[in-house]
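Just curious. Invent one:
>
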Amino acid sequence: MPGRRDWPLLLLVCVPALLAACLTLTGLLRLLPAELWWHAIGAPDLTDPRQLLYRHAALPRIAISLLAGAALGLAGTLLQQVLRNPLAEPTTIGTNAGASIALTVATLYAPWTLEHGREWVALAGGAVATLAVFELSRGRRFSPIAIIIAGLVISLTCNSAGALLMAINREYTQELFIWQTGSLIQNGDTATFRLLPWLIVAGIAALFLIRPLRLLDLSDESTTSLGASPVTMRLAGTGVAVALSAAVVAAVGVISFVALAAPALVKLAGARTFRQRMIWAPLAGASMLWLTDRAVQVLPFASEIPAGTATAFLGAPLLLLLLPKLRTMPERQEVMPSLHRRNAWLFLLPALTAMAVLVWAVLAVGYDGSGWRWASGAGLSELLPLRAPRVAVSLAAGVMLAIAGTLMQRMTGNPMAAPEVLGISGGASLGVLVFFVLSSSLDRSAMLAAAFAGALASLAIVAPIGNRRALAPDRLLLAGVAMATMASAFSAVVLASGDPRLDTLLAWLSGSTYRATTADALVAATTAIVPLMIVPFLARWLEILPLGDAAACGLGLRLDRVRVILLVLVSIPTAVATLVIGPLSFVGLMAPHLARMLGFQRALPQLFASAILGGLILVCADWAGRMLIFPWQIPAGLIAALVGGPYFMFLMAKRR
């Protein structure tokens, strides 16, 4: 008989399994009468499509959901023990994204590498991404939050690269999208029999590692004094976890957050020791993924929601709930290496001139079927109605995001703060998506109101989490990324709905200015100009806030009122920029840093220089998106994100 303490664990595993079993039996009975089940397993009638679907689609799908869930539960348990981090799992440390982009590249450009097994390609990509995460966090002594932030930024960058590859290879877009979002749909036993040996071997290896890895509950000094090598044990445990994760990605795509949820839930249910978590987490992961997969099959959507998307949508709130439990390290104030210009205002005039020349150039220079052309006179007049709204929207969106990023970095004292990173852009996009689902129209003013409401709601959720304890900046970053993940998962749910307006939504989500209108340009330009007119009256606040809360209060600032005003100033341009350019570009992160490195240290010169640089970045990105794969187009937000992700990693490396 199980002990009293085991009952919560049994319920955690058995209740989802029983629900999944009921849904499974109902589905199988609907597909094929029970009296034919055994016959269909051994020798299905080739003339009966029901038996073929039962044998080669339904049963393998059940098996792969159980195997993948168990593998992810085991991988998450190993990573959390090895890294002493309750948020560590293959998604949050970048392993899944690395494996996914490696398989995407191999599928498109080197399919011969898949002949010896997709698992090895995925393992190589996952290992490279994981090593990159460890390298980025090494300078901060592998602190839990440093590892998670590095992993999630690498994931965002890999996802942007995957989206770019899908834009270039349009004939494979639907197939790649379904696979990257983690689909458990099966067409035979191949994936099951490929994943099973990896799970068996990894399970055996994990059993041998239980006793050594338990020593990691002690400090590294204590572990070394007992004759064990913490580095060797961490490498062994991480290697097993990465191999398991790569095998799952190779078999079914990216299944997010199961490896986070299973160990966390079994620990809350009473599995206190590492040995108990090693036993119960795979069982919980298997039952949870089985139930999730059965649930997505009965939801009333035009097409099935991928299981990976469903788990991400459920896992991001869990990430927010677990964030307060994360062990943190004190953060120190850092001074970024840069120049200092005494007469910074004098350099803004040449910058404005350069921006005007660039705008004129991108309006005039283009490529058509005959080659490159420099339009002028009547030819330019014909092109202006097509190009001018796009350029104006890109310029205004870059200015707005740069203003928001500068305000946030000065308000929080965090050099990595940005609307895209702190979840404000994600909240704005979530508001637009909710409006998209609830409304039958695409009214721009209503969408703008929805974006603003979503941005404020995101701030209301993220800001209290970021203000806990001493590490507010990094907590703010991680909470914001969780919000961005929720928005991304919800967008995937909406994309699976089969709505006829999806073409417009897809273009917006990827940051395209293709549908920009004159009205959009006027709204964006007005919203960009208004903060530039207001901010000079707030210059004193922006100079004092980076000194810290104590200094700001000592100098007479009412921090609550100041922050509310600045957050509203951040939310409005972020909402408008998200509406016209999409939810991800990293311009709000890059532009303030570039301005600082160019010597614009004081608040107002930095803000105006950031605005100019942000506009230049997105104008160039939009032009490059129009030209690189002509006659097709790459969204400007996507190109900017591909530049911004590596730049974020560079900043993390410099913070050592």
